[in-house]
Amino acid sequence: MAHLLQHCHDTGWLVLAIAMIQFYMQKGSHKGLYKSIQKTLKYFQTFALLELVHCLIGIVHTSMLVTGVQVSSRIFMVWFITQSIKQIQNEESVILFLVVWTVTEITRYSFYTFNLLNHLPYFIKWARYNLFIILYPVGAAGELLTIYAALPYVQKTGMYSLRLPNKYNVSFDYYYFLLIVMAFYIPLFPQLYFHMLRQRRKVLLGEVIVEKDD
Ligand SMILES: CCCCCCCCCCCCC[C@@H](O)CC(=O)SCCNC(=O)CCNC(=O)[C@H](O)C(C)(C)COP(=O)(O)OP(=O)(O)OC[C@H]1O[C@@H](n2cnc3c(N)ncnc32)[C@H](O)[C@@H]1OP(=O)(O)O
């Protein structure tokens, strides 16, 4: 069952890649691309919550912290930034993180699939543990630039914010929340990046590495 779900996930990101290439070839522009693929993206990125469940119930042996940060930050980007603020959907930075996520996920799920079949081509293993060196910072930059582009709109409209006075007597400012999220990239991004560097040494060079939260 888990294998079947994983196969669906791989196919989903492939469908997304084909849809993006087709759109760009037909329109010659990235404007409107997000709108055209949003349903598929929402579905498959939300589906990634299962990775956290697999981790929790012990089907997959990996760091909870790393998987949690990775999955929640992506779901946050999709639902609470890009999907919620139509005005930023045509930003180049959105395309940047979409392309990076898609390349990463196709490589990653191909790795899992061929690994399970015991026929893992070396180039897929190589791609899984080398491409991230460039893709991680580029993807994070795309995400941060997108949140940054959202700030003026969030400040102007006060979306998702709760101002005083109100019957709950609590206030929440989404604008400042986004600034905090951006600041969190500083301590959390290196955790993810160094985790993948350790995995790279383990898988490609055969080093024995002990994770702190294992
Ligand atoms: C709510 C507010 C949010 C606030 C956010 C604050 C800021 C956070 C900053 C975060 C920055 C994120 C930036 C990021 O989004 C940008 C990008 O992603 S750019 C793209 C580059 N990214 C990557 O390359 C990372 C991709 N992700 C991963 O590789 C994984 O998600 C990771 C969590 C990193 C875990 O990888 P790891 O190698 O540690 O473990 P695995 O899970 O791959 O593998 C463990 C073993 O399990 C087997 N496995 C796993 N899943 C499957 C499966 N579906 N089917 C079969 N087998 C599976 C795998 O083969 C391993 O087995 P073994 O140990 O036997 O080798």
Strand/helix succession: HHHHHHHH
Fraction of residues in helix: over 70%
Number of domains: 1
Unreliable residue stretches: none
Number of strands: 0
How far the N terminus sits from the C terminus, by CA atoms, comes to 25 Å
Looking at the structure, what is the overall shape? Answer: globular
What about the largest sheet? none
Strand content is under 5%
Radius of gyration: 19 Å
**Class by SSE composition:** mainly alpha
Number of helices: 8
Bound molecules: ligand L7CU2Q4V
The overall pLDDT average reads 92
How do the strands and helices of this protein lay out in sequence?
Layout: H1 2-27, H2 33-47, H3 49-56, H4 64-82, H5 92-116, H6 122-128, H7 132-157, H8 174-205
The structure holds ligand L7CU2Q4V.
The site of ligand L7CU2Q4V has 35 residues, from helix 4, helix 5, helix 7 and helix 8.
Membrane topology: Multi-pass membrane protein
Protein name: Very-long-chain (3R)-3-hydroxyacyl-CoA dehydratase
Pathway: Lipid metabolism; fatty acid biosynthesis
Describe what this molecule looks like in 3D:
By secondary structure, the chain is mainly alpha-helical. The chain has one domain (about 1-205). The protein has helices at about 1-25, 35-45, 50-55, 65-80, 90-115, 120-130, 130-155, 175-205. Helix 1 runs antiparallel to helix 2 (about 35-45), helix 1 packs antiparallel against helix 5 (about 90-115) and helix 7 runs antiparallel to helix 8. The two termini are about 25 Å apart. The relative contact order is 0.11. It is globular, with a radius of gyration of 19 Å. It binds ligand L7CU2Q4V. Ligand L7CU2Q4V binds near residues 60, 73, 140, 184 and 185.
